[in-house]
Amino acid sequence: MTTILLGPQRFTVTVTAAVRSLDVDGPIAMVNAGWLEREEDDAELAGLLDGRGRNLRLYHRLVDVMTKDTAFAKGALAFREQQEELRGFYGLRLQAAVDTVRAVRQRSSPHGLKSAALTSAVQAVRDVDRWYASQLKELYREMGRHVSVWESPVIGWHRGEIEATLDGCVAIVIAGGHVGVLLQAFRLFSLELPEELPVVAWSAGAMALTERVVLFHDFTHQEVTAPEFHDHGLGRLPGIIALPHARRRLHLDDPQRLALLARRFPRKQLVLLDEGTVLLFPTADSPAPPGARVIAHDGTIETVDDDGGEAG
Amino acid sequence: MSAQTGTRRLAINRLRDRVPLDAAAVDRFVSRYGSPIVEGERATFLWRGEADEVWVRHRVVGLPDPLAMKRVAGTDLFAVTTVLPEGSRVEYQIEVRRGEAYERCNDPLNPRLAHSPLGSSSVCAAVGYHVPDWVALDPEARPGQLLDEVVRSRALRRDQPVQVYLPARFNRAIRYPLLIVHDGGDYLGYAAMKTVLDNLIHRLDVAPLVVAFVPPRDRLREYPNHAPHARFIARELVPWLSERLPLLETPEGRCLMGSSFGGVASLSTALRYPGMFGSLLLESASLVFTDIGFEHGGGPYFDPVVKFVNRYRAKPTRPVDRIAMTCGVYEPLITPNRSMVPVFRAAGMTVHYTEARDGHNWENWRDRLGDLLPWLFPGPQKFVYE
Q1: Looking at the domain assignment, is residue B130 inside a domain?
Q2: In this entry, which stretches build a coiled coil (chain B) (predicted)?
């Protein structure tokens, strides 16, 4: 099971070399549903794959399903509204909990009580994450009771086409874009990436391969500036949290902020995917390879050394 | 124009030292620098011609107005230098006296103008001020639509025109938040709000939303806490829009917005219909009040405003959950606006308050939208990783 995660491809193109390094002959499945209506503008991407790209057209299919299967569309839109409402409550609670951690950290502690208060405040943030995850799971369960992707002939037809295309492919490339739509498309068509097929992905595509998709943008004007757990991804790299465009989107010079992020997901490796990054994961449980830049638990940025340790 | 900064003497002082200081030297100086000359945190305003007195007229609280210009000895050039902190933006005009005749005009040496319903003004931009790049038409941003509609209003006893903005990719299957904008025509005309919306939505900073731009007929009567106006907005316009467009039906999905008196109209409407709107966007709202007596100095038009704000301050309530508000630090309303922030917060509302080194004008209100709209209507920026 080979997976390669890349940095953003806009200015530093590494996908061609990464795909060639797989040493496979034959067509390559392309997923660029995250580009939304620009999905069809894939000539440049196909060119980077030496003309071997076969677009799975997941966004086009998603729109087709929403147009043709009105019962499903109704259920999906209702789910979307519920998820939006849930995100609203999650954002409120999360930001307050994260602000509390900062306030606790800044307060003096002449009697040494801060450490316990801080641990509890961080736990409160994790509790909010956990609450959101459980509520989301409940929403999915509820939605599944009303609409089934397995009963829709339109979805079934598209699924058949996708499987047929994938059957002839020797690798899959997943581009960036809107990670929410990408996950939606994967979920709608119950897309499972065969283990034997190598996958090359970047930005939102890389996030979609992980188990926990975390949205982040420290410099946003939005009210909720804390990184948010969004949804479960495909789980191909369950031990990784992918952080594309980290330099541009994270306060990398604020170790306390980063430490909180790391402590929220203690059993995951938080991997920065900036321009030029190329990371090879030979198996699902491979840790980030040497050279990867990760956020350590103390909030510092460390580079994984040849022994798999973090070199600082 | 901006000139070199550092330890060099001001350009106007170097000119004064020129010998001989003849008309040709002044010609060269004026054509090289124009007006104003911005050097570090100083701005020098110039005017050339025959006059008895010349002033810079502005409305910057803290600077003398009028700001008298002095003749550069032996020439027909008048100049004055004033402090101008980094990031400032000031609108001004030139006033000239010849004998008993006074004339007021934009600065003929400065091509940069700002427009408003009251006419145009010259603009002095300090070091560090930049027109945000989301203000200009972006060919890559898909344009939304502006629809001209008319709503028959029993409350206002007239047919009320409304311009309705539908975002690009408008889709009836999706429910949108609603923003109602007071002085709607002016926001479109002087704050480029359609372009701003198109761009901020395109950049993922702002969620696609429906915007109703409502122009007033008699804003000085209708905006300061006027029951028929509030009834029109809450009981006629919102239902009219909801019947025709897919809108979110919760208070969180509805926001009232306005600048100056439009800010008062937004707050007073929300107070008259608590629970109907979830948020307010107030720009330089005319929230004038008195702590004792009723001498507010704003003239008779402010009487109903002061009555309204005094009453609110005496017993603050929480008509909405969130307020995004801003004010220019150079306008007289800065103190009332600053004073209202803790009042709103103490009433239980979340307030996002920003200030700018600018005045009571449409370009200031335009420039603030890039911060306030994403706070109120966060776009999918956090979802997109190209």
Answers
A1: no
A2: none
pTM score of the predicted model: 0.92
**Is B278 an interface residue toward A (CB < 8 Å)?**
no
Decide if A81 touches B, using CB distance below 8 A.
yes
Q: What is the CATH number of domain A3-66+152-303?
A: 3.40.50.880
pLDDT (0 to 100) of residue A311 = 65
B301 and chain A: CB distance < 8 Å anywhere?
Answer: no
Residue spans of the domains in chain A: they are 3-66+152-303, 70-146
Does the structure show a pLDDT above 80 at B4?
A: no
B1: pLDDT strictly greater than 70: no
Contacts of residue B340, defined as CB under 8 A and 6 or more positions apart, other chains included, come to B285, B287, B309, B325
Q: Are A179 and A35 in contact (CB under 8 A)?
A: no
Same domain, B61 and B173: no
Does pLDDT of A106 surpass 90? yes
CB A273 within 8 A of CB A7: yes
Set of chain B residues whose Cβ sits within 8 Å of the Cβ of A180: 380, 383
Reported as a pLDDT band with limits 50, 70 and 90, residue A151 is confident
Chain A interface includes B352 (CB < 8 A): yes
**CA A198, CA A4: separation in Å to the nearest integer?**
8
For residue A179, give the chain B residue with the closest CA.
Answer: B383
In which domain, by residue range, is B20 found?
11-125
The answer to whether A81 contacts B175, with C-beta atoms less than 8 Å apart, is yes
The shortest C-alpha distance from A159 to chain B (Å) reads 24
CA distance A180 to chain B (A): 6
CA distances to B97, B260, B272, B306, B343 from B317, rounded to whole Å, are 51, 21, 11, 17, 9
- Give the pLDDT confidence of A239-262 residue by residue, as tens digits: 999 999 999 999 999 999 999 999
Overall number of domains in chain B? 2
Considering the domain architecture, whether residues B156 and B88 belong to the same structural domain is answered as no
**B152-211 pLDDT, tens per residue?**
999 999 999 999 999 999 999 899 999 999 999 999 999 999 999 999 999 999 999 999
Does residue B70 form part of some domain? yes
Compute the C-alpha angle B343/B344/B350, nearest 5°: 140
| Domain harbouring B362, CATH code | 3.40.50.1820
Is B378 close to A217, i.e. CB distance below 8 A? no
* DSSP β-ladder status, B210-214 and B322-328: unpaired
Is the same domain home to B115 and B162? no
Residue B134 lies in a domain: no
Chain B residue with Cα closest to A273: B385
Tokens found for residue B302: 């402010």
B140 in contact with A, Cβ within 8 Å? no
